[in-house]
């Protein structure tokens, strides 16, 4: 997360998959911020799920002196579902200091057991852009900074990223140098 006058910083991306996190050790290792998963929508069921470690992680990261941002792993297939996801994020961050944006995490998913895809994998570029816009607009209306998180190529190929700039932050995964 860069803003005018802010230099690059080190951070961690944490969800329940990381298990119990030693937040003071994360801070001592040089991290300045933590991006925490609030939850996700089931890629098959479409059910909203709170990350089982979210509360523990946000409290631990804040207590260790880290800045905090959050994200939601989306499988929204329309604007209504994107708004539900954003409202869930806003609901669960209330009462906590959130320094960085609330991001929608957009990516295709595949079930390793049967090869089936996520429910949002086949959205058109326009549909995916509408989903991202609805999420971000809802977060902004809740009084928080909003953003989109995806890989570089996903942003180029799977959405009209130019239509999402402006008040929204961009967090990009890059898997190459």
How is this structure best described in words?
This protein is an alpha/beta fold and 177 residues long. The chain has helices spanning 23-28, 54-63, 79-93, 125-141, 152-158; strands at 11-14, 33-41, 48-50, 67-73, 102-105, 146-151, 168-173. Strands 1, 2, 3, 4, 5, 6 and 7 form a 7-stranded mixed sheet that branches. The radius of gyration is 16 Å and the shape is globular. Helix 3 packs parallel to helix 4. The chain contains 5 helices and 7 strands; from the N terminus they run E-H-E-E-H-E-H-E-H-E-H-E.
> Strand percentage, roughly?
15-25%
The rounded distance between the terminal residues' Cα atoms is: 18 Å
Note the main sheet.
7 strands, mixed
Helix content: 25-40%
Order of helices and strands: EHEEHEHEHEHE
Round the Cα radius of gyration to an integer and report it. Answer: 16 Å
| Mean pLDDT over the residues | 89
Structural class: alpha/beta
The total of beta strands comes to 7
Globally, the shape reads globular
How many helices does DSSP assign?
5
Low-pLDDT stretches are: none
